[in-house]
Amino acid sequence: MTKLEITLPQLSRHLWTRQGFDATEAPRPAEQVIEAVPGVYGAAPSCYLSVLARSPSADLAELDDLLYTQRSVVRTRAMRATLFLVAVRDLPDIFQATSHLTRAAFAELVRNSGLSDEMYQNAAARIEAALEAAPLTIGEIRQAVRDLPAHVVAALNYIIGLMCGEGRLIRAGVRGGWKSDITEYARLRDWLSDVDLGSGDAERGRVLLARRYFHAFGPASADDFHWWSGLPREDAKAAIAALGDELVAVTVEDLPGELLVPATAAEELAALPDEGPRGIRLLPAWDPYLTAYRVRGRFLQPRWYERVYDRAGNPTSAVLRDGRVGGIWDMEERQGRLDFKVALFDPADRRTWREVDRAAERIAKAVGAGPYRVLRCPLPPPLTAGSNRLRSPLQGIEGERPDL
Length: 404
Known about the structure:
Layout: E1 3-6, H1 8-18, H2 30-36, H3 46-54, H4 60-69, E2 73-77, E3 83-87, H5 91-112, H6 117-130, E4 136-137, H7 138-144, H8 150-154, H9 156-165, E5 169-175, E6 182-187, H10 188-191, H11 202-217, H12 222-229, H13 233-243, E7 247-252, E8 259-262, H14 263-270, E9 280-283, H15 305-308, E10 318-321, E11 324-334, E12 337-344, H16 350-366, E13 372-376
Parallel strand pairs: 1-7, 12-13
Antiparallel strand pairs: 2-3, 4-6, 5-6, 7-8, 9-10, 10-11, 11-12
């Protein structure tokens, strides 16, 4: 491989464009965002906000249409047995490559709940029968099988998780608004009648994930991909090796080790000016950019790490400021108004706060909110301090209007 040497600002500028944050580029439809940026977290409201950050022209209805009307995108556990948005055309290969991670995790939970294989299979058959007429929520499934032994009903979440890992069930609709997590489950053969998971190939799926990963997040290390994918190290290494000359080696000033980037992007990367991007993007908790790397020094100063990530490495909602994480933010509806609370790490001028306001305006418009305002807030305690504030890091903290 030919080795390329670049600076951290060049890296940041490259990823700003690759992720779809560059407002000068033609906006991508939501479906293209999901394909171009693998690992969009599947739970609401993060899935909507991650797409909106990369597609200013998108709105909630566009993603809902893909999920529930066209059914060309699904929520499914994949890398690291975590819930993601996946294009249905890629589902068989990605399922074969990653579903063992979900099965292993939930099979252990089912066993630890005291269920034998016979008990599990009996409960699974009852659940599938209950879903014959229509998709149901977990609460509705629980009512349908309430005559099962109490410890079986108590393990219902784990049973359903394992059934999803086996390809028997799939997440279907959602009850409630765009921030709701009240999920309906359906039999996969009913919800996606044309999908044959058996047609997928595990090796092809692993190579697909590696290719998509480095195109979206490269330059990145082999260890970054191993961590992001959750694949065994040897499988991750083999998937990268299968890409061959598609990847070239890169060294980045101030970042350790050798990184990899698609050869098609190398010339473009080397020609970039030695300066980072400009602009503000409001990224939700578990955004794919925030979870793509094992080492986060490329976009976050170590002294701010515990303000953005909890002890398990999960990120809260972050302000991407000129290509680097420059603060945290929150969103609160009250009295018919949507408040965007923002706590920046470093002082900001009017230009920056106007950029924050424009980013907030885009979200407010996309979600169909009425009046909105931006509030400048003080920093809360670190996420590692003990309280669970990952989903709402500025809850209970009041702010004031910045000078725009």
